[in-house]
Amino acid sequence: MPDLATPLVAWYRENARDLPWRRPGFGAWGVLVSEFMLQQTPVNRVIPHLEAWLQRWPTPTDLAAAAPADAVRQWANLGYPRRALWLHRAAVEIRDRHDGIVPRDVDALLALTGIGDYTARAVAVFAYGDRHPVVDTNTRRVLARAIDGRSQPGPPSRRDLDAMAAVLPDDVETAAVVNAAAMELGATVCTARTPRCEVCPLQDRCAWLAAGRPDTGDDRRKQARYEGSDRQARGAVLKTLRDAAAHAVPMAEVVPDWPDPLQRDRAIDSLIADGLAEASDGMLRLPR
Fold first, then answer.
1. What is the pLDDT of residues 30-41, one digit of tens each?
2. How many C-alpha atoms does 46 have within 13 Å on its Cβ side?
3. pLDDT for 6
């Protein structure tokens, strides 16, 4: 396997974006919140929400003491609002199981609500400086192109962690930089649609570029269109609840002009099932 770590580290130290969670002293709680928010949400949308969230709830114990409805409301328009409930539940678990301190151990992190392989390792590496492979969508694309010669990565797999582990140097501090650098490269240079191979630090050792950048297909699951989707209907219902006085609305007044009443009702039912809304006495409200 070619040495990817050396050019990645040199490139990252010259080109890394100045992001809040990369600054010294940001803390494990801030890293954890940022990772929840960054799931399927662009960086530029996350930063103002992250700053407001941490100002309101600077520790897990602060969030755990709040009502779930407060977390859903503060989440605003970030999308995938179940993440707000999961983050609230994780904060309660951190308070009750770990004395209010975000755990360092990957298995302990994985046991928290809403945390998977990527987030657990991201906290352990970027907050605590431990040596683990961290793999997100951007990292997977860099590895697929540089090592496997594929234009796009395959579906997520446990093999991704093994592939990234093989790239990491033994030095713990440098390994953390390589993890961050691979993610940054995929986000800013080795992008999905318009990769800028001419400025890539891996251009002299990239299997995909050496093969002439062939289109090897993309067999990942495609996300459904948002416009007209159940996700859009759910978002409209939640916005109505967030904006309402006392965050409660008579059921008959929940987006009554939605073009598909059956879809609206389906959205309401799914929000109740997910714990994002409660229905009683003819009213729909955020969870108390």
1. 999 999 999 888
2. 18
3. 97
pLDDT digits (tens, 9 = 90+) for 124-181: 999 999 999 999 999 999 999 999 999 999 888 889 999 999 999 999 999 999 999 9
What is the predicted pLDDT for the residue at 140? 96
Residue type, 15: N
Per the annotation, the verdict on 35 as an active-site residue is yes
The amino acid at 262: L
What is the model's pLDDT at position 221?
65
Q: Are 28 and 98 in contact (CB under 8 A)?
A: no
Q: Find out whether 251 and 278 touch, Cβ atoms under 8 Å.
A: no
Q: How far apart are CA 107 and CA 93, in angstroms?
A: 14
d(CA 35, CA 120): 9
Q: Which residues of the chain have pLDDT under 50?
A: none
Choice among 14, 35, 51, 253 that is catalytic: 35
In this prediction, residue 130 carries a pLDDT of 96
Q: Report in angstroms the alpha-carbon separations of 198 from 158, 202, 209.
A: 31, 10, 10
Identity of residue 129: G
Three-state DSSP string of the chain: CCCCHHHHHHHHHHHCCCCHHHCCCCCHHHHHHHHHHHCCCCHHHHHHHHHHHHHHCCCHHHHHCCCHHHHHHHHCCCCCCHHHHHHHHHHHHHHHHHCCCCCCCHHHHHCCCCCCHHHHHHHHHHCCCCCCCCCCHHHHHHHHHHCCCCCCCCCCCCHHHHHHHHHCCCCHHHHHHHHHHHHHHHHHCCCCCCCCHHHCCCCCCCHHHHCCCCCCCCCCCCCCCCCCCHHHHHHHHHHHHHHCHHHEEEHHHCCCCCCCHHHHHHHHHHHHHCCCCEEECCEEECCC
Cβ(238)–Cβ(277) under 8 Å?
yes
